[in-house]
Amino acid sequence: MPLIKVITGFFRLIRLPNLIFIALTQLLLQSCIYEPLYRPFVTIDDTRRFGFLLIASILIAAAGYIINDY
Predict the structure, then answer these.
(1) Segments forming the whole domain that contains residue 23
(2) Count: domains in the chain
């Protein structure tokens, strides 16, 4: 089986457009709601923590899509 078919099949399995939508939603929530409201009260930079949260939620959603399909 050609490699490109395997890659496209995997992206179809994890529903890549849905994962991108989840990531964009979380990024917009972070930049438009969380940062303007809580920036004066937070003394540390939460960028790394938010990145880990974003990656974790994307991986959990992808795993859920895989489990749901099989």
Answers:
(1) 3-69
(2) 1
| Distance between CA atoms of residues 31 and 28, nearest Å | 5
Cα 16 to Cα 1: distance, rounded to the nearest angstrom: 21
This prediction has a pTM of 0.86
Tokens representing residue 5 in the block: 């078919």
The residue to which tokens 């938010």 are assigned: 50
Q: What is the DSSP letter of 31?
A: I
φ and ψ of 35, to 5 deg: -65, -45
In contact, 55 and 22? CB cutoff 8 Å? no
In tens, the pLDDT along 15-25 reads 999 999 999 99
**DSSP for residue 70:** -
